[in-house]
Amino acid sequence: MKVLVTIQAVREAVREARKQGRVVGLVPTMGALHQGHLSLVQQACRECSFVIVSIFVNPTQFGPREDFAVYPRSLSADCELLKREQVDVVFAPSVEEMYVPKADTWVEIPSLSRVWEGRFRPGHFRGVCTIVAKLFNIVQPDFAYFGWKDAQQLIIIRKMVEELNYPIVIVGCPTVREKSGLACSSRNVFLSPKERAIAPAIYQSLKIIQDMVKSKGITQAKKLILAARKFLKNYPQIKIQYLAAIELQTLRPVKKVGPGVLIVVAVKLGKVRLIDNLLLT
What we know:
The protein has eleven helices and nine strands. It folds into two domains: 2-173, HUPs (Rossmann fold, 3-Layer(aba) Sandwich); 186-279, Pantoate-beta-alanine ligase, C-terminal domain (Pantoate--beta-alanine Ligase, Chain: A,domain 2, 2-Layer Sandwich), CATH 3.30.1300. Helices cover 40% and strands 20% of the residues. By secondary structure, the chain is of the alpha/beta class. The chain starts with a strand and ends with a strand. Strand 8 (261-269) and strand 9 form a beta hairpin.
């Protein structure tokens, strides 16, 4: 496995892989890898013959009061994990490598980027789209892998690829959860033991909605959301930022739920912000 830090070196590695007829897969990450990331890597390795994992904590997707400075960074440990998965290349560039001084070119989809996560993290998806577009231009993969845990991000990236005519297949991979049901996240390490014991209630609130739909046939979104909010009131440490039933493609709230409706939630638990979702099928 090669660890490369320059754009030129990555392009040369991809060029050589193409000469050998290999299928290129890209897994973009910000490092601090956990089992959720590794599930993306494992699927990429099953489906592609040349896999690149990028590790880059992207400053442009963090707001001024967000956790960029303290976001967990563990490059050596991440590389050890990726070596075991037989990844071909780790791309770990510096900020200076990825952004020229005073960079002022952005990629954004305003209709999808300023709701839900975008409302609480202004500019976040502009930073995400811009860095992913740059990675796509550098690597030019055949396939790129993203997790459904960040569902809004996945939906936005798919639309960006469609509208900018990237010849890339975007693969959405299932959310990986701890035994408690808590979705794997790099930010989970910031939870205290007491907070970690409470955090599974987030997923339990989504399951309450799913169970009400399946077992009772309830489809009124307002009634379902109210039940989930009532459940979370049992945990005063959890502060809800949003909890909604939305249409998968437009991200607009729905009045009635059915197949293809996404239940999304974001909360603050102590100082940690956590998101989760559940797709009704």
